[in-house]
Write a structure and sequence with these properties.
175 residues, mainly alpha, Ferritin
């Protein structure tokens, strides 16, 4: 009898840990799936931003180099909270570089040389796409009444729109 109680209490603990947010299974699956794709996009955008940071050239090198370093830091800072939010909900998150490639929606840029304006234009477009994905994920969270995830996403939308704004202003001034 004592053994059965121990097994039962371990099972109860496991389910209570996995269901911290008290969302149903379907909600956890849908939201954590959205968060996996967001995480993959964050890693893809982070690496592209750092790639362009490392390979920046031209007369505004220092300004663009520093701006992209700042942007990279902001994007990377999103990764842990995105992943941990999925785990808090009881879902899973990305395990490897291969999974990032599977889930990412933003395209990589492996070109050997990219002009500064093209770099900034591409990052502008990617930040806008990330904003759209964040808004879409927010809608999923709203449907499931997941206010905590939605609240985090609102901050990330603001940060992403700010990056897009800065990049857009620079790109427009280069015409």
């Amino acid at each position: 009898m004592a053994t059965a109680e121990k097994v039962e209490s371990k099972s109860d603990k496991a389910s209570s840990i996995k269901n911290v947010g008290q969302l149903d299974h379907a909600a956890v699956e849908e939201i954590s799936g959205e968060l996996r794709a967001l995480l993959a996009d964050c890693f893809a955008l982070y690496l592209k931003t750092k790639n362009f940071h490392w390979h920046m050239t031209g007369k505004n090198f220092r300004d663009y180099h520093l701006l992209l370093d700042e942007h990279g830091d902001q994007i990377f800072a999103m990764t842990d909270p995105v992943a941990e939010r999925a785990r808090k909900l009881g879902g899973i998150t990305i395990h490897s570089i291969g999974e990032i490639a599977t889930y990412q929606r933003l395209k990589d840029n492996n070109e050997q040389h990219v002009a500064p304006k093209a770099m900034l234009s591409e990052l502008f477009a990617d930040n806008r796409k990330l904003t759209a994905s964040l808004r879409s994920t927010h809608e999923v969270c709203d449907r499931h009444n997941d206010v905590a995830t939605a609240s985090l996403i609102e901050v990330w939308i603001d940060e992403t729109e700010r990056r897009a704004w800065f990049l857009g202003e620079i790109v427009d001034s280069l015409d």
